[in-house]
UniProtKB/TrEMBL annotation:
Gene: bshA
Residue span, Glycosyltransferase subfamily 4-like N-terminal domain: 17-183
InterPro entries: Glyco_trans_1 (IPR001296), Glyco_trans_4-like_N (IPR028098), Glycosyltransferase_grp1 (IPR050194), Thiol_BshA (IPR023881)
A matching Pfam family: Glyco_transf_4
All residue ranges annotated as the Glycosyl transferase family domain in the record: 199-353
Protein species of origin: Deinococcus lacus
Protein name stated in the entry: N-acetyl-alpha-D-glucosaminyl L-malate synthase BshA
Length: 377
């Protein structure tokens, strides 16, 4: 492929979730750099809608087929089939699979069908730490990781965990996630914040897909402690299985009047850009992309010392870390900076400096492009 344009297919989860966001943001940047990018999936990725233009990225929908004898729709086979079509029609050089299963498995299947297209797999976490360790998926996950032409992980924690869980020796390159600090920045319009909170209120925020691993109950416990000490409001952005429990707990803790469940939406920069503090008490998190997006908006993070979070959030510098479930420590940390304007200002600036200085697209995207080129040598 020399130094000319690359022809890249991308497989990713399309719903609200960090891996699909990373895949989309990367695909957009790779396309903007003059390469040919084709997303293949059951539906258009969450953040891609409205973003693609004539220069791409393009989106190809995986077809379905209902047949009386099939008791299931077999989406991985349909994905491998659709990807094979795209590889042959578009002259794809490589497929970037975000997640070992099902995406790298489907990409390897298409590679074997077409006899072309290298496979680069990016591990995001859940495939390794939750799904992949299930006996029902362990061999397929290990196979996908071992047979990909190149494998990356979004944190050192995840790379180490993958080697340990699967007993894999192969090279796993760590390429951190990134944030576009032009888009994710402080919102300067004071009216935007006034529509959500009173000037004297601290505005706390949590964004996730409300799965048990996110410990949204801890978000409410921390917020209730903060709100008992100072005027405060909480924005809960996202949707998922724990939402009803979270609403119930907010009622029980007496903070439902100051908690807003806003549901799920892709353009979170506007809401992050008016917030004061991001809460991420997850029991496991391979990276914590939402926290990085908050930091880019000058929002310090109070998080659990779990997984790869300490590779993004430095305790006492751009946020605070506490042990998983230690809601008292998290509330104390939150109160300590919300009550000290000077300390808060320093942390907010440090959060932005971390995002811009260590996780800029200009630093990260070339690492993926270099990996793409190396695979094709
Ligand atoms: O955790 C989620 O809510 C979604 C999940 C996904 O797979 O989309 O996110 C994972 O990938 C993100 C992007 O690399 C990381 O920032 C998240 O930390 C990671 N989630 C977990 O490890 C639980």
């Amino acid at each position: 492929a020399g130094q000319g344009p690359l022809h890249v297919a991308v497989l990713c989860h399309t719903g609200a979730g960090g891996s699909g966001v990373v895949a989309t943001e990367l695909g957009l940047m790779v396309a903007a750099a003059g390469h040919d990018v084709h997303f293949v999936g059951q539906s258009m990725p969450f953040r891609l809608a409205g973003q693609h233009s004539m220069r791409g990225p393009y989106f190809h929908q995986v077809g379905g087929f209902a047949y009386a004898l099939f008791d299931q729709p077999y989406p991985e086979l349909a994905a491998a089939n659709a990807l094979s079509d795209v590889i042959l029609e578009q002259g794809i050089d490589l497929t970037h699979a975000h997640y070992a299963i099902p995406h790298a498995s489907a990409a390897l299947h298409a590679q074997s069908i077409t006899g072309r297209s290298r496979v680069i797999t990016t591990l995001h976490g859940t495939d390794v730490t939750l799904v992949g360790t299930e006996p029902a998926f362990k061999r397929t996950t290990r196979h996908a990781i071992e047979h990909s032409d190149h494998v990356t992980a979004v944190s050192h924690f995840l790379a180490d965990q993958t080697r340990e869980v699967f007993g894999i020796e192969r090279e796993i390159e760590v390429i951190y996630n990134f944030v576009d600090s032009e888009r994710f920045r402080r919102v300067s319009d004071p009216g935007a914040r006034l529509r959500v909170a009173q000037p004297e209120e601290a505005l706390l925020i949590h964004i996730s897909n409300f799965r048990p691993v996110k410990r949204v109950q801890d978000v409410l416990e921390v917020f209730a402690r903060v709100a008992s000490e100072m005027p405060a409001r909480l924005l809960m952005v996202g949707d998922g299985p724990e939402r009803p429990n979270a609403v119930e707990l907010a009622i029980k803790l007496g903070v439902i009047g100051r908690t807003h469940f806003l549901g799920s939406f892709p353009d979170v920069q506007g809401i992050l850009g008016i917030s004061d503090l991001f809460l991420l008490p997850s029991s496991n998190e391979s990276f914590g992309l939402a926290a990085l997006e908050a930091m880019s908006c000058e929002v310090p993070v109070v998080a659990a010392r779990a997984g790869g979070i300490p590779e993004v959030v430095s305790d006492g510098v751009n946020g605070f870390l506490a042990e998983v479930g230690d809601v008292d420590a998290m509330a104390d940390a939150a109160l300590s900076i919300l009550r000290s304007p000077e300390r808060y200002r320093q942390m907010a600036q440090a959060a932005r400096a971390t995002a811009v200085g260590e996780f800029a697209p200009e630093l990260i995207v070339p690492q993926y492009l270099a990996a793409y080129r190396r695979m094709l040598e």
